[in-house]
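[agent] plan:
  1. take the single chain provided in the ticket
  2. run structure prediction with default settings
  3. attach structure tokens to the ticket
  4. add a short note for the reviewer (M.T.)
[agent] executing step 1
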Amino acid sequence: MATIDRHTGKTISGLDDVWQSITTILSTSLRALVMARDFGSDLPRMVDRALSPLTKIEFYAAVPEALNRISPETLMAEEPRFRVTRMRLLEESDIANGNPIFDIEGIYYPRGHLGDFSEAYDASGRISLGDEEGGYYGR
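[agent] step 2 finished; step 3 output follows
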């Protein structure tokens, strides 16, 4: 599976494609797409909230919920090639200005979009949702 990198216009595949997909899912407001109301996350509506322990818990819950939500049209998770196992909201996140930054660890399934979960690899990366470009930084 290959797509176009939104910053360079070049073809990307594999884990780079997964990180771009995760960034797109998390930065899209839930119910914002007319033909795909279940696509996206609650993160965009949370970014202007005051930072409190409750807000942090909601941030932590919103990420795996958005990525693992089963789409009624496809009966598949929004990003079936990745499962979150651990994540951390970085202290330098500027949530009040819409720039949450997460370190995310998980399991990458290269053929998960085909329903084949027999091949799995550990993966980690940093997702920044609020910078001008929206970023993913695989590690």
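[agent] step 4 note for reviewer: The radius of gyration is 15 Å.
[agent] ticket updated
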